[in-house]
């Protein structure tokens, strides 16, 4: 593996190390020095590849959003009818809530950052829009917006609850939103 400026994977390693560090220690503990050490790159590489911490964080969180949108796509691209789409949404909630603790932490760290800084709010807005595109393949735009919020809320509640609700309750919630009935 090349280690000089010609190292084509250096930028990617920096982005991955940034997300790993945020997931492990929280955004408050992120620094150029810690990221460089975790990525195995010289500290000077940080400013060579990114104009500052803000650009690095935006790009890293953009990559993370791409990952979550791909999870949406994996669950919502196949359903052939609305009933199958409802089942897929329930499966998505359970996959997200039972999946990577890293993804859960990164999602919350991004939301906190977006609550404080408008540039990151734009990133979360883009992410929500991209997620809704997948939901709008099966549901009208208003229902897709409601489902997107439901997915986020149920995922968080299931992931953090000592006794998370079962799939039947998730499907009932999805059904209520998509049909107006249980």
From TrEMBL:
<protein>
    <submittedName>
        <fullName>TetR family transcriptional regulator</fullName>
    </submittedName>
</protein>
<dbReference type="InterPro" id="IPR001647">
    <property type="entry name" value="HTH_TetR"/>
</dbReference>
<dbReference type="Pfam" id="PF00440">
    <property type="entry name" value="TetR_N"/>
</dbReference>
<feature type="DNA-binding region" description="H-T-H motif">
    <location>
        <begin position="31"/>
        <end position="50"/>
    </location>
</feature>
<keyword id="KW-0804">Transcription</keyword>
<dbReference type="GO" id="GO:0003677">
    <property type="term" value="F:DNA binding"/>
</dbReference>
<dbReference type="InterPro" id="IPR041583">
    <property type="entry name" value="TetR_C_31"/>
</dbReference>
<dbReference type="Pfam" id="PF17940">
    <property type="entry name" value="TetR_C_31"/>
</dbReference>
<feature type="domain" description="HTH tetR-type">
    <location>
        <begin position="8"/>
        <end position="68"/>
    </location>
</feature>
<keyword id="KW-0238">DNA-binding</keyword>
<dbReference type="InterPro" id="IPR009057">
    <property type="entry name" value="Homeodomain-like_sf"/>
</dbReference>
<dbReference type="InterPro" id="IPR036271">
    <property type="entry name" value="Tet_transcr_reg_TetR-rel_C_sf"/>
</dbReference>
<keyword id="KW-0805">Transcription regulation</keyword>
């Amino acid at each position: 593996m090349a280690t000089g400026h010609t190292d084509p994977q250096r930028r990617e390693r920096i982005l991955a190390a940034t997300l790993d560090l945020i997931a492990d220690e929280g955004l408050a503990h992120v620094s150029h020095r810690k990221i460089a050490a975790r990525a195995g790159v010289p500290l000077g590489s940080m400013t060579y590849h990114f104009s500052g911490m803000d650009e690095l964080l935006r790009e890293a969180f953009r990559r993370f959003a791409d990952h979550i949108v791909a999870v949406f796509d994996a669950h919502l691209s196949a359903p052939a009818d609305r009933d199958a789409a409802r089942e897929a949404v329930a499966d998505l909630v359970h996959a997200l809530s039972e999946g990577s603790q890293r993804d859960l932490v990164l999602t919350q760290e991004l939301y906190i950052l977006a609550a404080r800084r408008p540039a990151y709010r734009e990133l979360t807005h883009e992410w929500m829009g991209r997620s809704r595109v997948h939901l709008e393949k099966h549901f009208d735009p208003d229902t897709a917006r409601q489902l997107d919020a439901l997915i986020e809320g149920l995922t968080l509640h299931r992931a953090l609850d000592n006794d998370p609700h079962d799939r039947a309750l998730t499907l009932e919630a999805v059904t209520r939103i998509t049909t107006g009935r249980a």
